[in-house]
Please model this.
Amino acid sequence: MGKAKLGHINFINCLPLTYSFEKEGFGKGLNITSAVPTVLNNDIVNNRLDVSPVSSIVYARNSEKFLIMPDVAISADGNVQSIILVSKKPIEELTNDKIILTAKSATSHCLLKIVLNKAYGARPNYYIRIIDMNRIIPEDATATLLIGDDALYANHNHQEGFYYYDIGMEWKKLTGLRMVYAVWIINRNFAKSHADLLQLVFDRVTKGFANGYQKKKQAIEMILNHKPFSFAQLDEYLEVIKWGFSQEHQRALLMFYEMAHEMNLIDHVPKIELAEVIR
Ligand SMILES: C=C(O[C@@H]1C=C(C(=O)O)C=C[C@H]1O)C(=O)O
Model:
């Protein structure tokens, strides 16, 4: 039997699954590629992966080609700590400013555009760049959007003179909803032809998150010496990030898609089509 080609986000937001893969054998029999979200987005759209977590907006842009894996997503209800706008000006004062977007993200680019437009009436000029963490906001820009571990670090290490905004909380203020940042998608052809491999991936990912969360302390200790965070910071972050995908999460995701569509960021609002697996 071949192996499923599975993507894995190498951010702390997936630490419980990383721990299960690396320390507890949950990756056995799988061909795993660990990378930042935009690399995985690109890999699965170009058929280099069978199943992968992707920026949630990527499903909307390619829904004819993919199904969503049930029961798993990356979300937070309000503050997320790792989707952060760092700005030289208060958010209310942003107008046609130049804003830099991290090249690691796709969903939060859209999320920021929605929030700045709908809540603040701002229409900035956006530029995607690789961010130098020693100089988060370039000279010629007003603000920078960070995600993942970079954002978490910036959130815990404020620099004087800059303003910090948690865009998960800005979304919550705008809509009253949680925000689904990533979903696991499956190539439809793969789902059709390899139901057994898909079932294995589903079991490993869902049980891997549950196992790693149960062993949160060991999971944090595995990375503590290699990351610029305290145990307490990581412990708190792993309570903020959620990995479920209930009906309520799906409704929140659809609201995000509707707003993204209104702003011409996607060309249609997709149905949320879940893959069939034994749960
Ligand atoms: C909350 C996060 O979730 C994510 C945000 C993504 C995006 O903005 O495209 C993609 C995958 C997730 O890693 C984060 O990375 O901080």
Remarks:
- The beta strands are 4-9, 30-35, 51-55, 66-76, 83-87, 98-102, 125-129, 143-147, 163-166, 179-187.
- Residues 9, 11, 13, 37, 55, 74, 80, 82-83, 105-108, 147-148, 151, 181-182 surround ISJ (CB under 6 Å).
- The chain has a mean pLDDT of 98.
- The two ends are 22 Å apart (CA to CA).
